[in-house]
Amino acid sequence: MNTHTELETKAGTTTGTMAGITPDALVTHGDMMRAFEAFKDANDERLAAETKGGDVLLEEKLSRIDAALDTAMRRLDAITLKSARPALGASFGRDAQAMSAHALEHKAAFEAYVRAGETGGLRALETKALSTGSNPDGGYLVPPEIETEIGRRLAAVSPIRAIASVRTISANVYKKPFMTAGPATGWVGETDARTQTTSPVLDELSFPAMELYAMPAATATLLEDSAVNIDQWIAAEVEQTFAEQEGAAFVNGDGSNKPTGFLHSTTVAEASWTWGKLGFIISGADGAFPAAGPSDPLIDLVYSLKAGYRQNASFVMNRKTQSAIRKLKDDGGNYLWMPPAQAGGRASLMTFPVVEAEEMPDMAADSLSIAFGDFNRGYLVVDRAGVSVLRDPYTAKPYVLFYTTKRVGGGVQDFDAIKLLKFAGA
Q: How many domains, the chain?
């Protein structure tokens, strides 16, 4: 059967346009498309040669082209990511007119603190607000504009955050109630007697926000240079550290002083699925796709998800797993994996977008290397409001350290919205 005709087409998921595509992105996208065409030709030769016992030279040729395709994709991802990062321009020009007097005052006081360690302005703001702007460990809250931009930058860099549901809270724990057993319902005639309904049974999921920190360092020369945008420097320095730590925790975190990753959930065969566990489909071969019908497990995985979740579903896997999937075809001879239709898009697998998360495990015996689901409904990221910075000019002289912290939590919120592919035999 031809999966391209059977799977529903989701408009706009992989071919939507992105404003501001750079010439470099267009050139790199062209290189990637040419590499993919060469990859398909080489793979077709390899498949034909397999019937005659295989060809080592063709395998090596395919590996080289695959590596070139990966390189082009990495370059395109980097260019796209750079253009997707929101810029933090200077706020003392026309942008300042849209800011409140308090926001401008906070920004100026925070910049004085970062550049010279002057705390008077921030302390005065705390006094005015009759509240504290520092956390128990010391440090001061960054202006809201910087916090917002850090969040936007993380959404562009962190793969799971980009597709998950994100909620900002003011407490340390977010508790979400859910119904384990609802009131009795049914159809009755107009004059039939109605039996008394039972009361709903509620439980709750808890998502504690854990502390995540980064410690960028600066020289005195950088801090004294008025041409350097301090807001942009802080956001750029912490975004990668925060994104890497978040990305690992959202996938594999054990919930101990970090978010609970979706792969840390209890898993069970889809036929035995119950709430509180993630269901999986087996590939049919240990650490690999089966030799006969290699695309069948992916089709089973897609249709193990209810239709209501499939409309916004994504595949999540690392680049090595993607490399293996590129070689697969459906029964009609069409490749299952397709590169981004244009610069700024996502690669797709059976019409569904592919999200690269390098923290996903490589294909191995019993590994859960592919996830598929509606992560916006299935996984919740919790951000506690406030990012704080503590200036430390003493620990690493002559450098000035900036101990930057934010509180983040996460976990599965709908266990029916995410399914896994387990690379195991029958």
A: 1
